[in-house]
Design goal:
- With 373 residues, the protein is mainly beta.
- 6% of the residues lie in helices and 45% in strands.
- The chain is globular, with a radius of gyration of 21 Å.
Length: 373
């Protein structure tokens, strides 16, 4: 894994001249294929670092949150599958507040424990009151305010059956845990899809190099990005103020040979028969892409700075280039991390996140970033 990255070339660009490259090195790694049962993860949804250096990991398959010391020692676990007090039916999200209390659960129920496993309280969530015509509240994330628990709500929007390129949309709301809407943040397009008419109805194919819409939740700021565009929305939950930030990233052209190879590999997942035939028909109808999306992913650190991952060429290998932007959108640093690494928390001098290897093993990795403030 080329993670020391000193001397590694992650690409160039005019913005790089103004952004020094910071050295990233592995400080801690959790996760094994076989061995310590506490580190045999099923499907890690999130990992957060607590104020004393401990790390909490939410595993959806085992429906528990495991806590590890700063040296990687397993120190305890909390949560279990069920419908009783302190129990959850599913585990899809995890959040730590300023007191290191851990809130976790799903879109229908969340529980709260202190970081040592003491059950504190729980809430049953019902977002039907927030539904609108053509919309349906289907996801939520807990955000801790000063006096109340507020939620970031994602609603899906029904799309008309049409021929051509469509982008399923999402509406994002700020609401109390009782379902009271506090603010409508905006409408954001989702993954680019191509809907086409067939003899029996309609089928949908995802672009070979799609641009997803993501949100990144920080301590004081939430960032929303349409990754096919060149801007992200900065939203402050406490003041409910927002503004757009232009991102200095130019989309890279797609080499025709790379596009041909992607077309050939697009349906390898599909078995023979109708499933394979429908997939191949969808790929054949996709519009020809000339450029990669402008951005691959976004994140936000504890200071509220936006991190943007540039969409590397397919031949670029395993390295992803991240630009750290100030509030004016100017690059202040450049960090190279493994392309399969998904950041879950960025703090003072570190990046914590999740990787998955070729065997499907989930690992939690903490990188120390030298010179990062």
């Amino acid at each position: 894994m080329c993670v020391a990255f000193v001397g590694c070339d992650g690409g160039g660009g005019e913005e790089d001249a103004r952004a020094p490259t910071l050295n990233a090195r592995v400080a801690l790694e959790l996760g094994v294929l076989e061995g310590d049962p506490a580190q045999e993860f099923g499907q890690v949804m999130n990992a957060v670092k607590l104020s004393d250096g401990r790390i909490a990991v939410a595993d959806s398959r085992s429906t528990d949150v495991r806590v590890f010391g700063a040296d990687g020692t397993h120190t305890g676990a909390m949560g279990r599958r069920g419908r009783g007090p302190g129990e959850i039916a599913a585990l899809t999200r995890l959040w730590a507040d300023s007191a290191d209390n851990l809130t976790f659960g799903s879109a229908t129920k969340i529980v709260r424990f202190d970081s040592y496993g003491e059950f504190l309280d729980e809430k049953i969530l019902d977002w039907t009151v927030l539904s609108r015509p053509d919309y349906g509240a289907d996801s939520s994330w807990p955000l801790h305010g000063d006096t109340q628990l507020v939620m970031l709500i994602e609603s899906s929007r029904a799309q008309p059956r049409q021929e051509g390129l469509i982008r399923p949309g999402r509406v994002l709301l700020l609401a109390t845990a009782q379902g009271e809407e506090l603010d409508s943040i905006g409408y954001f397009p989702g993954v680019e899809q191509f809907t086409y008419r067939t003899g029996t109805g309609y089928d949908t194919a995802v672009l070979l190099f799609p641009a997803y819409s993501h949100q990144a939740i920080g301590k004081t700021r939430i960032v929303f990005g349409d990754l096919a565009a060149d801007s992200v929305l900065l939203y402050e939950p406490r003041t409910r103020e927002s503004r757009w930030l232009k991102v200095p990233v130019e989309p890279l052209p797609i080499d025709p040979a790379t596009l041909d190879a992607a077309r050939e590999a697009a349906c390898e997942w599909a078995s023979e028969g109708d499933l394979r035939a429908n997939c191949e028909a969808g790929v054949a109808r996709l519009p020809a892409q000339t450029h990669y999306p402008a951005m691959r992913d976004i994140a936000v650190d504890s200071a509220g700075h936006v991190w943007v991952s540039k969409y590397a060429e397919a031949a670029a290998g395993t390295v992803a280039e991240w630009l750290v932007l100030d509030d004016a959108g100017e690059p202040t640093a450049r960090v190279l991390l493994p392309v399969e690494f998904r950041p879950t928390q960025i703090g003072d001098g570190y990046v914590l996140g999740i990787t998955t290897d070729d065997l499907g093993v989930n690992r939690i990795v903490e990188f120390r970033i030298d010179g990062m403030r």
